[in-house]
Specification:
Number of helices: 17
Strand content: 5-15%
CATH topology of the largest domain: Rossmann fold
Shape: globular
Number of strands: 13
Radius of gyration: 23 Å
CATH superfamily of the largest domain: NAD(P)-binding Rossmann-like Domain
Distance between the termini: 54 Å
Number of domains: 3
CATH class of the largest domain: Alpha Beta
Largest sheet: 8 strands, mixed
Structural class: alpha/beta
């Protein structure tokens, strides 16, 4: 059994690493040769805990085979998993160009009688899998399925095995039990094999709810702080009810949401809502509320009147190097646009080679932790680096603590909600 993975970003590389660990032969390719070369040399193209070790283990066992030729991967694979990007257009509609391109390439390299599974993992609106498959592959024996990814950056390997439930979408008459047995690696978790549209929509349900929880927590606890509420106690009381309040995750007040999933999926929902005959209030309000919270953090930074600012942590969450729609990067860029500030950056999760290519203006400001602290009047800590900073900062140097780490009252540390 050979499994081909097309796309070596955050989702693709985790599938490569974990399916290899399960003993399957994994062929992998990306349109960017540097990603293929990174895997070939035993390095993950992105920062994700445990992935480097799994890649090296797979390479040594011969179960991970990086390929420069995607056409050969398509021909050799029994299962093809597409993990290409589906970014937002300016309108908010999801951009399906990369997905169309990869499925077209597949159609050009399979025979009409080839029987393979084509697994879509890219987040797309309901109906997309059917539409793209019918456009390019309707006259083949290929079996399309949609396998939504619920992998959180920073804990993706753990999530690959310890997920809440398994979901797979298929056409009504297709037999997929063999594929379910391969992909549903944690048989103790519930399994749902449903239709394609429902499986596609399940990801939007999850991400809109996660975004809702973040926005709700930030709004309700911000108001509480303004009203003199003990926010720390109020949060503890609220999350202690695991019978009705469901989960503590995402319900801790902190940074606005960012990354590649929540903003993009909310924009797609807004785009879909714009064509609806119904009226919606909450979902369209989530991004504006999140943006307003970014604005409030920006004003908090500017209120210190410090012109040399050290960003301790820049990616959108702990244990991830993803800068896409990172709240801290948004704040840095808006300060930078005024040309009134100097910046120093330290974030041990960032891949410097990627930063040099994708964000050259940021790369010039990256320093080691000691220099970042020494060259800054104000330090903004947005990830779990507070203890490291406290050991190295100058006496009296002020810290804005935007991380989820709590610290006893200190006149030189201001946390979002102490």
């Amino acid at each position: 059994m050979k499994i081909g993975v097309l796309g070596l970003g955050y989702v693709g590389i985790v599938n490569v690493a974990c399916l290899s660990k399960e003993g399957f032969t994994i062929l992998c390719n990306d349109v960017k040769p540097q990603k293929v070369n990174a895997v070939r040399s035993g390095r993950s193209p992105i920062h994700e805990p445990q992935v480097d070790d799994l890649i090296n283990d797979g390479l040594s066992k011969g179960t991970i085979i990086p390929m420069d030729d995607s056409t050969e991967l398509i021909r050799q694979s029994d299962i093809i998993i597409t993990c290409v990007g589906t970014p937002s257009k300016d309108s908010g509609e999801v951009n399906l160009d990369y997905l169309n391109n990869v499925v077209y390439e597949i159609s050009e390299n399979v025979g009409k009688q080839d029987r393979k599974f084509l697994v879509f993992r890219s987040t797309v609106p309901p109906g997309t899998t059917e539409k793209i498959f019918d456009k390019y592959l309707s006259d083949t024996e290929i079996i399309p399925v949609f396998y939504p990814e619920f992998l959180r950056e920073g804990s993706a390997v753990r999530d690959f095995y310890d997920y809440g439930r398994f979901v797979l979408g298929k056409r009504e008459n297709d037999e997929v039990s063999e594929l379910v047995d391969i992909l549903h690696v944690n048989k103790e978790r519930p399994s749902f094999v449903t239709d394609l549209r429902t499986s596609e929509y399940s990801k939007y349900i999850d991400n809109s709810f996660h975004a809702l929880k973040i926005v709700f927590a930030n709004e309700i606890f911000s108001l509480g702080a303004e009203l003199g509420v003990n926010v720390k106690d109020a949060h503890a009381i609220f999350t202690a009810d695991d019978k009705l309040n469901i989960s503590k995750r995402y319900l801790r007040p902190g940074l606005p949401f960012g990354g590649s999933c929540l903003p993009k999926d909310l924009r797609e929902l807004q785009y879909l809502i714009s064509s609806s005959n119904q009226e919606f209030a909450l979902i369209p309000s989530m991004i504006p509320s999140n943006d307003a919270y970014v604005d409030s953090l920006l004003e908090k930074v500017k209120s210190f009147d410090a012109k040399k600012i050290g960003f301790i942590g820049l990616s959108f969450k702990n244990d991830s190097d993803d800068l896409r729609e990172s709240p801290m990067l948004r704040i840095l860029d808006r300060l930078n646009s005024t040309k009134e500030y100097e910046f120093s950056i330290w974030d041990e999760d960032l891949k410097l080679d990627n930063l040099r290519i994708d964000f050259p203006y940021l790369f010039r400001s990256v320093k080691d932790l000691d220099d970042c602290i020494a060259d800054s009047d104000l330090l903004i800590v947005s990830k779990r680096y507070l203890d490291k900073v406290l050991k190295k900062r100058r006496e009296g140097q002020f810290i804005l603590n935007f991380s989820d780490e709590q610290y006893p009252s200190d006149s030189t540390i201001e946390s979002l909600y102490q």
